[in-house]
Design a protein that fits this description.
single chain, alpha+beta, 60s Ribosomal Protein L30, Chain: A, 2 domains, eight-stranded mixed beta sheet, 14 strands, 31% strand, globular, binds magnesium ion
């Protein structure tokens, strides 16, 4: 079977370029040009499935609804965008409780209201399979253009918002999509590259390196390790391993030229959220981890789904 990345690459090759498609498959969201003013519109979609992305039997449906929206808002933030509207499609399992839809939707509406996002509509179906929720979010770049994965340059400093690792302990359901932080970043800094951490730094940094044709050195000592990662660290996986490889942190990773980085480091917060310098962009194409002065390859590791 193909990996997810191989499959996406094949699908990407099937698509022809169209004038309206300014940025297609391969970033956190696509950018499409609308109307006579060619206004840029961001669009992204995510499908969450019971027993793959959540466990309905053991999770508050309101949190499942919330997460379904939050992951999409995170992708809009990862383009340097603001979210405008969402549509939601549900495939309910036949025999699901009558109140399930309202419970799921309550979590969605609460988060949408919090960020001023319009819940514009969607579709409902039922079938013999498990619950599936598909959310599509529309947004627009905050600045004059969206921030892509492909803009990192040699010499850039790499930053992340917040703390990393251990999301399975609960934050994968309750994280705040970093929309406010993305706004503060885009309005105040010349951002070269931006992505959200859905699969862990060891995976997501690779996307920036590949799209930008650069390499990177990440410094182990600089990684902001969350309390949950420290608590879940053990013999097989250290707290640092959790911080580097766990999925679903949904923090932002971005790169700034060194002068911009110095400005941010004078007050290392965005919209009140701490940011950490974790390394730098280099020539080449490899990701390296600097541990006690030595460079070791920063290899992608399969991440655990949040069941
Ligand atoms: Mg993303």
């Amino acid at each position: 079977m193909l990996s997810e990345f191989e499959l996406i690459e094949r699908l990407r090759q099937q698509v022809k370029s169209q004038p309206a498609l300014r940025l297609g498959i391969g970033d956190d969201a696509a950018e499409v040009l609308f109307g006579k003013h060619q206004s840029p519109v961001l669009v992204t979609t995510d499908m969450l499935m019971d027993q793959v992305h959540f466990d309905l039997a053991s999770t508050d449906p309101k949190l499942i609804g919330r997460k379904s929206l939050a992951v999409n808002l995170s992708d809009i933030a990862a383009m340097g965008g603001e979210a405008i509207a969402v549509v939601i499609s549900y495939a309910f399992s036949q025999g699901a409780p009558a109140t399930l839809g309202e419970q799921l939707h309550a979590g969605i509406v609460e988060l949408a209201d919090q960020y001023g996002v319009a819940v514009a509509g969607g579709d409902t179906n039922s079938w013999k399979g498990p619950l599936v929720i598909s959310v599509t979010a529309l947004g627009q770049p905050i600045g004059s253009h969206s921030i892509e994965r492909s803009g990192a340059q040699e010499g850039d400093i790499i930053f992340v918002t917040g703390e990393l690792g251990g999301s399975l302990a609960g934050s994968h359901l309750t994280f705040e999509p970093r929309l406010r932080e993305a706004r503060a970043l885009v309005e105040n800094y010349d951002v070269h590259a931006l992505i959200d951490l859905s699969d862990g730094i060891s995976s997501d940094l690779q996307h920036i390196l590949r799209e930008s044709n650069v390499g990177a050195i990440v410094e182990a000592d600089l990684i902001p390790i969350s309390a949950a990662a420290r608590a879940s660290g053990g013999k097989e996986k250290s707290p640092l391993d959790h911080a580097l490889h766990d999925g679903e942190d949904f923090e932002l990773l971005f790169t700034l030229a060194s002068a911009e980085a110095s400005r941010l480091l004078a007050d290392p917060t965005l919209a009140g959220t701490p940011v950490s310098q974790i390394g730098s962009i280099t020539s080449g194409s490899e990701a390296w981890l600097k541990v006690q002065g030595e460079l070791v390859p920063l290899k992608r590791q399969g991440w655990e789904h949040s069941l």
